[in-house]
Backbone:
C-alpha cells in the first residue's frame, strides 16, 4: 500500500485500479487534488469508500476534473413519487437503458465528443451489486503484433440508437426517456485504437456502441468487434467493484470500458452520475 501525505493507495489485483483511503474528497486542498489526479491517471480507476457526498459536493468534486457534460444524473429504478419503476413494463424506456448499460461500453462515444471521465456515487444499492471495468490499454498491449497491425488505422461508427435497439429501445414521441444520445443524426466515426491525450498510451476503443468498421462488411465488422471485446474483457484486465453506500468511484473513460451489473429491480437502487466532458481536440470525431 502506497502512502502519500494526503491519502493511502492500495492497488487492485488487476492491471489497473486502486482503492484510496484516509481521504475526504469534499475537502481536498489544491495540492492534494493534484496528487489525487496524478494517482487517477496512473491507475485509471479509483475507488473511494465512505464518502457520502451531498449532491453539491459531488458536482464540485467532479468539476475539478474539468467541465461537465452531465452535472448530476440520478440513475435509479425509483419513480419521482418514491415507488418502484415497473421492471417488467416493456414500454418503460428507462428499464431498457438499464439493460443496455449491462453491456461493455465507454460513455458518450456516440456523441460528437466522447466523455473524459465519470464520477459515480452510491446512495442506495442492493447487497452485492457490482459494476465491472475493463482495461483497454492492457487489452491493446495483450494483442500480438499482427493483431495490432490489423486494428491500427481502422475506425468504427458509434451509435446509441443502434445499441439500444438491440434491447428493444426505439425512441418515440411517447418515450419516457429524455433522449440524450438518441437524437444524434450522424453516428461519429472513431479510431479503433485511441491514444490517451495525457499519458500517450494506446488503448482499444470498442464496446456496445461500436459498429461498421470503415473497411469490410457489417457482419465481418461485428465479428471482429465481438472478438476484440471477448479477448479484452478477461482477467487480469477486469475488475468487479462491489458497491456499498457512500462509495465514490472515478474512472478514466478514455482508457476503461465498464458495464453495470444485473440486479433484482424490485430492490431500490439510487446512484449519482457526473460525467466530465472530453476535450474536442482529443475526444472529438475522427477526420476522414
Residues:
Amino acid at each position: 500500500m502506497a502512502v502519500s501525505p494526503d491519502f493511502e493507495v492500495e492497488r487492485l489485483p488487476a492491471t489497473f485500479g486502486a482503492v484510496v483511503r484516509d481521504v475526504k474528497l469534499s475537502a481536498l486542498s489544491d495540492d492534494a487534488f493534484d496528487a489525487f489526479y496524478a494517482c487517477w491517471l496512473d491507475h485509471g480507476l479509483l475507488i473511494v469508500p465512505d464518502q457520502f457526498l451531498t449532491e453539491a459536493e459531488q458536482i464540485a468534486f467532479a468539476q475539478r476534473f474539468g467541465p461537465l457534460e452531465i452535472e448530476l444524473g440520478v440513475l435509479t429504478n425509483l419513480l419521482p413519487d418514491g415507488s418502484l419503476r415497473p421492471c417488467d413494463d416493456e414500454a418503460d424506456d428507462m428499464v431498457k437503458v438499464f439493460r443496455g448499460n449491462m453491456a461493455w461500453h465507454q460513455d458518450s462515444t456516440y456523441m460528437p465528443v466522447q466523455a473524459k471521465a465519470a464520477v459515480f456515487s452510491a446512495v442506495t444499492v442492493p447487497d452485492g451489486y457490482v459494476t465491472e471495468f475493463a482495461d483497454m490499454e492492457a487489452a491493446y498491449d495483450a494483442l500480438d503484433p499482427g493483431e495490432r497491425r490489423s486494428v491500427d488505422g481502422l475506425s468504427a461508427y458509434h451509435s446509441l440508437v443502434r445499441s439500444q435497439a438491440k434491447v428493444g429501445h426505439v425512441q418515440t414521441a411517447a418515450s419516457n426517456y429524455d433522449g440524450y444520445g438518441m437524437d444524434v443524426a450522424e453516428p461519429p466515426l472513431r479510431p479503433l485504437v485511441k491514444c490517451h491525450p495525457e499519458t500517450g498510451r494506446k488503448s482499444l476503443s470498442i464496446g456496445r456502441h461500436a459498429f461498421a468498421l470503415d473497411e469490410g462488411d457489417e457482419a465481418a465488422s461485428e465479428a471482429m468487434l465481438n472478438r476484440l471485446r471477448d479477448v479484452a474483457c478477461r482477467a487480469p484486465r477486469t475488475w468487479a467493484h462491489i458497491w456499498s453506500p457512500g462509495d465514490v468511484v472515478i474512472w478514466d473513460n478514455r482508457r476503461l470500458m465498464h458495464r453495470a451489473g444485473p440486479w433484482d429491480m424490485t430492490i431500490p437502487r439510487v446512484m449519482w452520475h457526473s460525467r466530465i466532458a472530453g476535450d474536442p481536440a482529443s475526444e472529438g470525431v475522427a477526420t476522414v
Summary: The longest strand covers residues 68-76. The domain at 71-283 is CATH 3.60.130.10 (Double-stranded beta-helix).
